[in-house]
Design brief:
CATH class: Mainly Alpha
Strand content: under 5%
Radius of gyration: 21 Å
Largest sheet: none
């Protein structure tokens, strides 16, 4: 391998370590944070199974956001399309991480291509909303724009690789599988792939320290994940026991 390939391989391993450690640290922090009060948004379920039933449509369809006003519905459209297309794109990319490729992964290839075309539209909706909604414009911080621009750059470089500046997919797969098996391989000879892969590493390293952790946070949000059972059981915060 040349020097650049060695550096990129090392950066990939460091990024993976940062992502895993940072993610687990944030998850542990969420669980250790005391909940001194029962504050589920009413009407709320009174049993654990009821909470699970409530969380499923919340996670899959953003139900509470859909029930909001016009601004929230615009956010719902952009946000739901973004999350679904992002998931399909990730599933499509799993063909680079497996050998042989499972049939279920191959089944997502067509949907993944369509998702790649819809992905920029969803991002555009989210960006325009931040500029046109006065409340959002006030509370939007630099890191919000940073994440959106970063994801847009990843999407655009991915589209370039798909339709304009094609690279050798055999080399790409050999490189990825080499990382997974701790047998680092030569970096594909494609500047666009290098940029695309580097941006993905930046996103992974930044993920645990950003608002993107809402992906896990919603599962432990007291307004959604608590049962409304103050009459059935006494709620005692961990630090008060």
């Amino acid at each position: 391998m040349n020097g650049l390939s060695t550096v990129i391989n090392l950066l990939a391993y460091v990024t993976a370590l940062v992502f895993v450690v940072g993610f687990l640290n944030k998850v542990i922090l969420y669980f250790k944070t005391p909940n001194p009060l029962l504050i589920p948004t009413t009407p709320a379920p009174t049993t654990t199974m009821g909470v699970v039933a409530r969380m499923i449509p919340e996670v899959l369809f953003f139900r509470s956001l859909l029930k909001g006003g016009t601004a929230e519905k615009v956010l719902w459209v952009g946000g739901w399309i973004f999350h679904v297309t992002f998931l399909l794109i990730v599933l499509r990319h799993l063909r680079f991480f497996t050998y042989p490729v499972p049939g279920i992964i191959m089944a997502f290839q067509g949907l993944g291509i369509l998702a790649g075309l819809l992905f920029p539209i969803a991002l555009l909706i989210l960006i325009v909303r931040r500029f046109t909604n006065d409340r959002m414009a006030v509370i939007t911080l630099f890191q919000d724009y940073f994440v959106l621009i970063l994801i847009i750059a990843i999407g655009l470089t991915g589209l370039l690789l798909k339709y304009y500046v094609r690279t050798n997919l055999v080399d790409v797969k050999a490189f990825i599988l080499g990382l997974l098996t701790f047998s680092p391989a030569q970096l594909p000879d494609s500047p666009i792939f290098l940029i695309h892969f580097g941006l993905v590493l930046v996103l992974l390293a930044y993920f645990p320290f950003s608002k993107l952790m809402h992906a896990w946070g919603i599962l432990v949000s007291p307004t959604r994940a608590q049962a409304d059972n103050p009459r059935e059981a006494r709620h005692v915060a961990p630090w008060a026991q």
